[in-house]
Amino acid sequence: MATFDDLCAEDDGLICPEVGxxxxxxYRLIALYDELFSKGMKDKWHARVYVDLxxxxxxxxxxxxxxxxMGSPLIAxxxxxxxxxxxxxxxxxxxxxxxxxxxxxxxxxxxxVYIEGSCDDRVDDILRAIPRGxxxxxxxxLCLVDPYDFGFKFETLRRLSxxxxxxxxxxxxxxxxxxxxxxxxxxxxxxxxxxLGCNDWRAKWEASKMARDRFPVFLAEQVSESxxxxxxxxxxxxxxxxxxxxxxxxxxxxxxxxxKHPTAYGFWKDVMKYGTDQRGLFPE
Length: 284
Prior knowledge:
This protein is of the alpha/beta class. The protein has one domain: Rossmann fold. The chain contains 12 helices and 11 strands. It has helices spanning 4-7, 23-40, 72-77, 93-106, 123-129, 154-160, 173-178, 181-184, 191-196, 201-208, 215-228, 262-274; strands spanning 8-9, 18-19, 47-52, 59-62, 68-70, 85-90, 112-116, 139-145, 165-171, 241-244, 251-258. α2 packs antiparallel against α12 (262-274). The chain is globular and about 55 Å long.
């Protein structure tokens, strides 16, 4: 199991975006689930595919420090039982080129497809890169959805769900939506409607009679409700891992697993268990 040192990276001179200190927790949780998933599914499927819709540069520098951490693509490339194929998408060509060089260095034999552009615009290319499954050749994908804000689109997830895929999602219900509540609640703002695939979410919010400070919970559970229309098993906010800041313990976002099969939630229970103490996820 990974340690903090395993997540650390050297300065290689390539672009290295700044990330918040809470990113350490996010990457630890992602690393743990990647390990459990890749190992647990290696003998049950003919091909396991890792998809990262917002892949980034592969390494980030913790804000206010010189500490560099591997991002989700390099973490996935470093698991003990590598995925059979990797698909990395990002709309920033400089970041994607840095990721390409870093991935080639740490996993030169990995089969990797790089897709430049918005995942929403390039979803057909992402689908084409996923091997076609059949009754004789079973393919399972794990797709990480980690946008900078609550900017993912349900339509993209719907189209990706045409293949057998589990989603590991960062839901910025506190960090973004809670902070910008008064902007997003306005009728002309379509951001949340696009994320949920639901134009009447405001009416559902009013009908819920939930207190204002419960809006992130409402939103996280609405994401799950939308995904149930695609065959995913229902989840509550209690089934998701809440990431907080270190300095004032303020909630930032939920990390949620969405799957059509209960086996995945067995792995997720282990993540939730080890993730109880955010600074103690991985034994040294």
